């Protein structure tokens, strides 16, 4: 049986992709894990694997953060278990591929609920406890999409811009404390994101995708260093630098060409 931990990392979207790789890294550090995802079976499987491999306590909590009120219910659940969250990782997020006016409105609102409302609620609730203890760290998945307008993924890019702006503002507000907020900005990464977004026909998949393990390592290291943000990957660093000097209209056209469907797929 895994030893009980006095400090926990709570990771949303912790059963796959970047979230799973982050869970492995924090388990290696000796943190207990609170894994949050929608599918209980996947959570139970990951919990058993990580507990057996790293000998840490793993608490799986099934929660659909697309539902209003779910973030507050998750916080209450963690409090009821008397677990102290020293690291919060807001990894869970989704997108939707296609022209804005052709998308299902409820699907877009669900993405806003997950990427913006739930991230805001979880950050606020757990950050208050961290500030009261004057100790804690928050890692937000912001994406390089946060730096540019995103034709074919307009709502996703907009939500990630919100996450980045929120994170940088909080990092400044907390600069005189022992609590830090770090924004991780990966580019296109080899995860299930594209399938869930209905994006398998996008030209962006013709480029080399980042390794989620490396992205997680970049975010983990930046978090431990107390950095306000980190862009993962040299190519993405160059892209972000260019987007900061080029006119937004030109950047939007570049993103349009990169993300639009392949010829014949529209």
Automatic annotation (TrEMBL):
Gene Ontology MF term list: oxidoreductase activity
CDD domains: SDR_c
Keyword Oxidoreductase: yes
InterPro entries referenced in this protein's UniProt entry, alphabetically: NAD(P)-bd_dom_sf (IPR036291), SDR_fam (IPR002347)
Keyword set, alphabetical order: Oxidoreductase
Origin superkingdom: Bacteria
Annotated Pfam families: adh_short
GO cellular component entries: membrane
Record's keyword annotation contains Oxidoreductase: yes
Family: Belongs to the short-chain dehydrogenases/reductases (SDR) family.
Protein name: Short-chain dehydrogenase
Source species: Oryzisolibacter propanilivorax
């Amino acid at each position: 049986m895994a030893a009980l931990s006095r400090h926990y990392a709570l990771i949303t979207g912790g059963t796959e992709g970047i979230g799973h790789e982050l869970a492995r890294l924090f388990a290696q550090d000796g943190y207990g894990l609170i894994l949050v995802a929608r599918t209980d079976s996947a959570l139970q499987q990951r919990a058993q694997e990580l507990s057996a491999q790293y000998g840490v306590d793993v608490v799986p909590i099934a929660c659909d953060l697309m539902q209003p009120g779910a973030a507050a219910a998750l916080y209450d659940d963690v409090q009821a278990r008397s677990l102290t969250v020293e690291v919060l990782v807001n990894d869970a997020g989704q997108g939707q591929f296609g022209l804005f006016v052709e998308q299902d409105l409820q699907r877009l609102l669900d993405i806003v609920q997950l990427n913006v409302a739930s991230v805001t609620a979880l950050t606020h609730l757990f950050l208050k406890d961290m500030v009261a203890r004057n100790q804690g760290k928050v890692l937000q998945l912001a994406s390089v999409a946060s730096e540019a307008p995103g034709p074919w993924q307009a709502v996703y890019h907009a939500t990630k811009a919100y996450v980045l702006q929120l994170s940088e503002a909080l990092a400044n507000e907390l600069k005189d404390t022992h609590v830090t907020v770090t924004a991780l900005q990966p580019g296109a990464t080899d995860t299930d994101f594209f399938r869930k977004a209905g994006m398998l026909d996008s030209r962006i998949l013709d480029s080399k995708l980042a390794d989620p393990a490396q992205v997680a390592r970049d975010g983990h290291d930046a978090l431990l260093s107390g950095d306000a943000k980190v862009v993962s990957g040299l190519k993405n660093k160059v892209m972000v630098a260019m987007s900061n000097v080029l006119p937004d209209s030109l950047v939007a056209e570049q993103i349009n060409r990169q993300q639009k469907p392949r010829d014949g797929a529209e």
